[in-house]
Known about the structure:
The protein has helices at about 5-25, 30-60. By secondary structure, it is mainly alpha-helical. Helix 1 (about 5-25) runs antiparallel to helix 2 (about 30-60).
Amino acid sequence: MVDKNEIKGAAKEAGGKIKEVAGRAMGNHEMEAEGRADQVEGKTQKNYGKVKDAVKDQVRSH
């Protein structure tokens, strides 16, 4: 089962990519940097969800 953090993280990562590209297109370096930061935050949250889900699976199997 997919953890809610995986879904939220993936959404944040995608939104960050959009923000980065938009910032680059407009020449807005601050927006571009925020987009990259959002992507890192999203990846981190997504990976946290994966680990959390894996731990739950291990606990259930024992």
